[in-house]
Amino acid sequence: MLRFDEIGVLPEPGDNVAISSRRLEAGTVIDFDGTAVTLPHTVLEGHRFVTRPVATGEPLLSWHTPFARALRDLEVGDYVCTPTSLAAVSARGVEGLPREPSARNEPLDPYELDESALNLGQQVTSVEQPGTFLGYPREQGPAGTRNHVVLLATSSLSSGFVTELARRFDGAEGFDGVVPVAHTEGGESGTPNNLHVLLATLAGFALNPNVAAVLIVDTEDELVSGQAIKDFMAEKGYPPIRVPHAFFTRQGAFEADLTAAGRLVEPWLPVVAAQRREEVPLADLWIGLQCGGSDAFSGVSANPLSGAVAREVIRHGGIAVLAETDELIGAEGYVLKNVRDLPTARRFLKTVQSFKERVGWHGHTAEGNPSGGNVYRGLYNIVLKSVGAARKLDRDVRLDHVIDYAEPMPGHGFVFMDSPGNDLESVAGQVASGCNLIFFTTGNGSITNFPFVPTIKFVTTSTRYELLRAEMDVDAGRYLTGMPMDDLTGETFDLTVRVASGEPSAGERAGHSQVSIWRNWRQSGPREGISITTDGRTSRDLADLPAEDRDAPLPGLPLEVATPSAIETPSTTGFPVTLLAADGRRAPEQVGLILPTSLCSGQIALRLAAQAEADRWAGDAVSRMVALPHTEGCGSSGGASEETFARTMLGYLLHPNTRMALLLEHGCEKTHNDYFRSRLVEAGADPSRFGWASIQADGGLDAVTARVRDWFGSFNLPSPEQVQGTVGELTVALEARGKLTRETAETMALIGREIVGAGGSVVLSSRGALLTDEGFRYAAFGSPAAVEPTIAHGQRFAVPGWHVMRMPGTDWMETATGFGAGGVQQVLAHVAGGTLSAQRFVPVVEFSNDPETVAKYGDDLDAVGSGDPQEQAQVGLEAIADVASRRHVPKAVASGNVGFQITRGLLGTSM
Question: Start and end of every D-galactarate/Altronate dehydratase C-terminal domain (predicted)?
Answer without folding.
Answer: 283-521
